[in-house]
Amino acid sequence: MFRSPFVVIVSLVTLWFVATFLVFPNANLLISTFLPQGQFSFRAIDKLVSSERAMNSLWHSFALAATLAVTVNVVGIFIVLVTDYFKIRGARMLWLGYATTLIYGGIVLAAGYNFIYGRYGFVTNAVRNWFPEIDPNWFSGYFAVVVVMTLATTTNHMLFLGSSLAKIDYQTIEAARNMGASTMSILWRIVLPALRPMIFAVTVLTFLTGLGALTAPLVLGGTDFQTIAPMILTFSKSTGSRDLAALLAVILGLATIVLLAMMNRVEKSGVYFSVAKVATPLQKQRIPNRFANAAVHVAAYVLFVVYATPVLLIVLFSFLQSSAILTGSITWGDFTLDNYATVFGTPAVLRPFVVSVVYSALASAIVVGGMLFVSRVLQKHRNPVTTMLEYLLHIPWILPTILIALALVMTFDRPNAMVGGQVLTGTTSLLLIAYVIVKVPFTLRLLKAAFASVPESLEDAARILGAGSMFTLRKVLVPLILPTAAAITALNFNSLLDDYDAAVFLYHPLYQPLGVAIKASTEGENNVDSMSITFVYTVLLMIIMGFTMYLVYGRGGSSTRRRKRRAGTVTVK
Questions:
Q1: pLDDT digit string (tens) for 383-398?
Q2: pTM above 0.90, yes or no
Q3: Based on the domain organization, do 508 and 449 belong to the same domain?
Q4: Which one of 120, 448, 479, 540 has the fewest beta carbons within 10 angstroms of its own beta carbon?
Q5: What are the tens digits of pLDDT across the range 168-190?
Q6: 19 lies in the same domain as 53
Q7: Closest CA to 336 of 349, 352, 322
């Protein structure tokens, strides 16, 4: 392994990166929390127990996570069944409506719901025009956070549970029907048990999402419902309470590790179902009961309206003056292109969007470029050293983003020898480093899988023809995995565009990213004039994210369908 200069350089750079940005900052966070003066101290724990706000945030976070584990599963399983399992009229259109959360989320989603249903939202003001006694803060607190996060986090069900459902062998369902089983009995006793591993996996992911939620509680929670993450943000702003923020982040990280360990244990516990050697593709099922069929159709289309309405209103409101949204009434004279002219014609207004695009593009390119070499070394050389490196590179998957961001702030706020004696806190580079860190595990896993899928015979042939390892990598291997690398780059870019969790801790005041700018527009009545600008930002984000999703999934799906049509109607696997 170490005879190759390429492997040595990649290994040394990876070790430096892991030690400097993954291990040392998080270890420093633990030391500053529990060993503030070089001796073990319970001071942070005492402050946590004595702080009513902090203890309430813990309770709220776990209550939110438990609630979402139920509500997201109910809604998510339902939308997968009505789009992929049952014969429902307009299923393709329903899927498009449910998939709207794939193109917007995070702070953009929370701000959009706030501008539509919040205190100064259009729907709230329109209803108050007829019923003035309605509480303007009706869409806030626990209820609002649960509703928004339930709708926002069903994307895991659509992507992963739908894929698992398609793999069920239809012969099993046919056999059960021939034995007299009803449609509902087949669903409860065959289909859902077969999906149990994936349901458990998305439940754990949902629980973790609720536990570490920041944007929805921050924007919609109000003063009465704040969770751990907003409290960490609040406490981290003061030096005197930074240890309390660190302790809350540690608790969040420990909960994440425990839940991921539980998920891994369940995944290894056995096989839940078996399939035939030549599986028959799943066919959609009819609902025989007329009333049940009607009820499912009604519920499916009601959910479609709930999912699609915010997207349609955001596009509509991007062409309206803020005064029309505030009054809750729209006339033809309220429509304007001034909002788009302001965004594209005013450098100060366009600046946050450009900053986010630059940060996202740089981070996506850097992490894919770096992990391209690292994943090659890890895939080719399997030994204790590479195994240890691989485990360490997965640290960002088991720690919340806000914990990583807080650790970076507390570690690099003074000269550090590991980065050449530089102070990184307060600079433009620290946010870029954080973006690279959080995308390392996802990128590494997919690139390593891409390298593993390349036949070894190609590399052997290149070696026989006299090609060196670097030439083989550049001319043979990289062109084969380039489509995967491009897709990963696009997905990373998409997910970082509207980031708020890391940006709020690490952004430079002169280079405010889009997520922070959108959050600022939701704060109080003084910022309602920026509503329309925020809607324009959101529309632009949805266009970019939708185009990216089409490049990653749409073109691949279209080409696959074309290949199948050319191959004929029967495919032997």
A1: 888 888 888 888 887 7
A2: no
A3: yes
A4: 479
A5: 878 888 888 888 888 888 888 88
A6: no
A7: 322
